[in-house]
Amino acid sequence: MGLPSSLLCLCSAGRIRTKVKGMAFRKSLVLSLIFGLGMAAAAQAQKESGAAPTHAKSPSPPVTNELIHQQFGDNCSLMAGMPQFVADLDADGVEDLVVAARCKNPMADKDEYSFTVADPYNSFLGYSDIKVTSSFASDEPERRGLSLLIIHGAEKDAWRSEKPKAKFLLINIPFKTLSVKKLVQKKKNLLGIYMEETGEGEQTSSMLFWDGKKYRYQQLGSTLE
Fold first, then answer.
1. Is 138 exposed, middle or buried (0-12, 13-18, 19+ CB in 10 A)?
2. Where are the domains of the chain?
3. Is the pLDDT of residue 99 over 90?
4. What is the mean pLDDT of residues 112-116?
5. Which end of the chain is flanked by fewer CB atoms within 10 Å, N or C?
6. pTM (2 decimals)?
7. 100, 113, 150 from 68: Cα distances, Å
8. How far apart are CA 177 and CA 193, in angstroms?
């Protein structure tokens, strides 16, 4: 004995609704996967492009010698009247710090305070031995001990972290003025430290930037002053 036609219709309609719901679920799942993959691809592309903030800002409150002595030792002190910058210099998504300072005998403190002493200016000129160039003394008193201190921030507390990601003391940098601006290097968006120079480079502009392993110096040309 067969089922009444009304029951057969109900069963068929139920199977159709179940099939439609299943198809709708699969379609929704596929769309979700496509959206997720698209977002992941966009994030990866942004990471590979070295996306960085378009501008720097000043630390608030300003950095004091207390932090400088804690991170670099008592032989370094802030230069009065120079701007301080917070910017993502290494394009890792965490803010870093750049300040101008005067430092005496930086090689003596580098192991004690775990920072790297580098001389990108003289490396550009062909003098790459930091043990030699760290002993260079300028004939101009205002340039003696002139340094840039850079702290690469760790994820927790960024550059204010007790143990930052990395610290750099850049020596023999002939800066007169400093600013931090956007630059494109090898199709990557970065932030660079731009300078107007003093001394033998008077009326010359230049920049420092992080190349993924170290800070590099690059001349930009003469100013219009």
1. middle
2. 1-48, 65-222
3. yes
4. 97
5. N
6. 0.74
7. 11, 11, 10
8. 10
